């Protein structure tokens, strides 16, 4: 399944009812060097557009929003020890958390790669 | 005539070359200074203590048997250590401190003289109140000045800093809602508000929702009005806002919030721009903290504790924290505390501090107010705004100024690094270059609504000559960065330490000294 994007620069991959969430390469470039990531615990319910994680860089602390509603199943343990993964592989090993979708129709409003690229080109 | 040509040379001898390194690492008056632990010896002591007489061990085996490991120094060594360190510091007493959103103004020495008067400096908060009537009168007089300047009917004097004042105001709002059994819990915070506002609201048990800014850097009025409803407890708004801009719709917003059953918290950190010109009470504000350490010149940063009294509307006044000063029937002054609050202040939400607030800062702030007078305080705001606009106008042809088109700014000028696009340089490099020019850098990457923000607040205490020097340095840096970007990637070049690895410092902070030899 293809990757979808939000206007707040999160990406989400969906396989079945499991979604993997991270921040985009554009977002990590804007944040600068990431020094700390505060991740949600497994079992926490998050709602689309609601605060789900916090990413702290040398410039600022920023909220990461849940692209879709659901229940967190796993946070990326590698980010706790090595937050630099967010800079090195934002759309790969630097994923933030996984969740089980509660409403797959929420994916309809998200952007595909082409639409997101056009969106950041307009910023 | 016989010439004396054997004296000491008085001019440079041709061929004198540069020396790359010194033996000590010092560079003339720029002295390297190791940590006390690195230079001291455990075997030395600056004092000659008498031998310890034998005492029975009552510690039950808990007596320390290891060496404490504190190095010893003679008095001149200790004095030199701290004096050398102080010379590497930058301070408002050394030069302009253009840190936006901080109001780093000169701290008048008269304030210090007043604060050192024994009647204020040598009293204790547990002294009988009859012996500190002068101090209580000072608190009461300062409270009256603050109420008059803001047009508000009450003030809580005890909060100890800006964010503490926010907490006080939001606790009063929470108490007012609880008194009505009103369950509303949403606090609206515009993007142009101070970063501490959402944290304060969350700490008080509210949930926070952002309100976007419009293209002119102000609150999006339509978005805010559309969000009001029976679940909205309060709006927290900063005026002037963090873009250094006045929020002209505050009265409209306050009226709408009140009509919807909510309260208005105004972050007063930027009060310096409007003191004597605008009374927040006239704009419908219910609570606002006043940073005495910004607007009223008491030292801050490393120089002294903050103080953040909170003015309150009639709706919130009954919930104000204790203690507070009131006049008795006999004309004396007394502190209303737990034992007397019952009848005087039954709805108070309680106590925020052990004693009565920052007494030393109260003395300094009142000294500042009384030496300026009402007309002088008005001129403070006018000159602060004039200075900021002088900087904005003098730099906006080179620096990107995102909101300059919407008119004059208030007390601080906001720039962005858009003009450096394509050079690979950014706000951080420019701030580092400011250090080489001998200035404390401006606030950078804040407010977040502006990409690569640089926020410059000169305050009213800088002369035109000082401003011209700052402007000249900023124009020089920007021009040179555009002409030869590569030269600036490693700035600062002349500071005691070059570009530091801030990322490593944040990811792997070393917070304690460890003996490397052990």
Could you characterize what this model shows?
The complex is a heterodimer of chains A (123) and B (518). Chain A is globular. Helix content of chain A is 20%, strand content 36%. Chain A has helices spanning 25-31, 77-81, 85-88, 113-121, and strands at 4-5, 10-15, 18-23, 34-38, 45-46, 51-57, 61-65, 70-75, 97-101. Chain A starts with a strand and ends with a helix. In chain A, β2 (10-15) and β3 form a beta hairpin. With 518 residues, chain B is of the alpha/beta class. Chain B has two domains: 109-365, Aspartate Aminotransferase, domain 2 (3-Layer(aba) Sandwich), CATH 3.40.640; 374-506, Alpha-Beta Complex (Aspartate Aminotransferase, domain 1). Helix content of chain B is 33%, strand content 9%. Chain B is built from 15 helices and twelve strands. In chain B, strands 1-7-6-5-4-2-3 form a seven-stranded mixed sheet, sandwiched between helices. Chain B has a three-stranded antiparallel sheet with strand order 10-12-11. A two-stranded antiparallel sheet of chain B has the order 8-9. In chain B, α3 runs antiparallel to α12 (359-395). Chain B is globular, with a radius of gyration of 28 Å. The model of chain B has no long low-confidence stretch (mean pLDDT 93).
* CATH homologous superfamily label of chain A: RNA polymerase II/Efflux pump adaptor protein, barrel-sandwich hybrid domain
| Largest pleated sheet of chain B | 7 strands, mixed
CATH class of the largest domain in chain B: Alpha Beta
User: Segments of chain A where pLDDT lies below 50 for 5+ residues?
Assistant: none
CATH topology of chain A: OB fold (Dihydrolipoamide Acetyltransferase, E2P)
Helical stretch count of chain B? 15
**CATH class of chain A, anyone?**
Mainly Beta
Task: Tell me, briefly, the overall form of chain B.
Answer: globular
Return the structural class of chain A: alpha+beta
Average residue-wise pLDDT of chain B: 93
Structural class assignment of chain B: alpha/beta
What fold name stands as the CATH topology of the largest domain in chain B?
Aspartate Aminotransferase, domain 2
Main sheet makeup of chain A = 6 strands, antiparallel
Gyration radius over CA of chain A: 13 Å
């Amino acid at each position: 399944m293809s990757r979808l994007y939000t206007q707040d620069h999160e990406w989400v991959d969906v396989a079945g009812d499991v979604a993997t969430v991270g921040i985009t390469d554009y977002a990590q470039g804007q944040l600068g060097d990431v020094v700390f990531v505060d991740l949600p615990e497994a079992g926490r319910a998050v709602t689309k557009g609601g605060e789900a994680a916090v990413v702290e860089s040398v410039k600022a602390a920023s909220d990461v929003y849940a692209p879709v509603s659901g229940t967190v199943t796993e946070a990326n343990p590698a980010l706790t020890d090595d937050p630099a993964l967010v800079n090195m592989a934002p759309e790969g090993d630097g994923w933030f958390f996984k969740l089980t979708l509660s409403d797959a129709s929420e994916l309809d409003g998200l952007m595909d790669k082409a639409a997101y690229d056009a969106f950041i080109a307009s910023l | 005539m016989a010439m004396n040509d054997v004296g000491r040379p008085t001019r440079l001898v041709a061929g004198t070359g540069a020396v790359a390194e010194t033996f000590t690492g010092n560079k003339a008056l720029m002295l390297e200074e190791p940590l006390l632990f690195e230079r001291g010896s455990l075997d030395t002591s600056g004092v000659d203590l008498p031998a310890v007489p034998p005492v029975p061990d009552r510690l039950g085996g808990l007596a320390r048997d290891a060496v404490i490991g504190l190095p010893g120094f003679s008095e001149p060594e200790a004095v030199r250590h701290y004096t050398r360190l102080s010379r590497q510091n930058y301070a408002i007493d050394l030069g302009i401190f253009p840190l936006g959103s901080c109001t780093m103004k000169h701290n008048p020495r008269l304030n210090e003289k007043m604060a050192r008067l024994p009647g204020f400096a040598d009293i204790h908060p547990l002294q009988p109140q009859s012996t500190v009537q002068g101090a209580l009168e000072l608190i009461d007089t300062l409270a009256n000045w603050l109420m008059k300047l803001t047009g508000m009917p009450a003030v809580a004097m005890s909060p100890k800093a800006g964010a503490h004042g926010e907490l006080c105001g939001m606790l009063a709002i929470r108490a007012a809602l609880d008194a009505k059994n009103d369950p509303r819990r949403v606090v609206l915070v515009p993007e142009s508000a101070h970063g501490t506002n959402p944290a304060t609201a969350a700490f008080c048990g509210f949930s926070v929702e952002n309100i976007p800014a419009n293209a002119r850097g102000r609150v999006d009025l339509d978005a805010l009005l559309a969000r009001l409803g029976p679940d909205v407890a309060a709006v927290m708004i900063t005026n002037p806002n963090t873009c250094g801009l006045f929020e002209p719709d505050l009265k409209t917003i306050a009226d709408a919030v009140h009509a919807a059953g909510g309260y208005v918290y105004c972050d007063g950190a930027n009060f310096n721009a409007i003191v004597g010109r605008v009374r927040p009470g006239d704009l419908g504000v219910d609570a606002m903290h006043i940073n005495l350490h910004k607007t009223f010149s008491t030292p801050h940063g490393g120089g002294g504790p903050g103080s953040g009294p909170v003015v309150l509307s009639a709706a919130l006044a009954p919930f104000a924290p204790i203690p507070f000063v009131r006049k008795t029937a006999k004309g004396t002054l007394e502190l209303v505390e737990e034992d007397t609050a019952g009848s005087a202040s039954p709805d108070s939400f309680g106590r925020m501090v052990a004693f009565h607030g920052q007494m030393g800062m109260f003395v300094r702030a009142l000294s500042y107010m009384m030496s300026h007078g009402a007309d002088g305080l008005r001129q403070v705001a006018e000159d602060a705004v004039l200075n900021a606009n002088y900087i904005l106008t003098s730099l906006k042809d080179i620096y990107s100024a995102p909101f300059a088109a919407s008119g004059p700014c208030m007390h601080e000028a906001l720039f962005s690094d858009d003009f450096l696009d394509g050079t690979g340089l950014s706000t951080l490099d420019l701030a580092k270059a400011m250090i080489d020019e001998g200035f404390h850098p401006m606030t950078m990457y804040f407010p977040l609504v502006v990409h690569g923000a640089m926020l410059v607040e000169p305050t009213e205490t800088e002369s035109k000559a000082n401003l011209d020097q700052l402007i000249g340095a900023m124009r020089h840096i920007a021009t040179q960065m555009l002409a030869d970007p590569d030269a600036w990637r490693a700035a600062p070049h002349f500071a005691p330490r070059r570009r530091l690895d801030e990322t490593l410092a944040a990811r792997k902070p070393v917070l304690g000294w460890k003996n490397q030899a052990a």
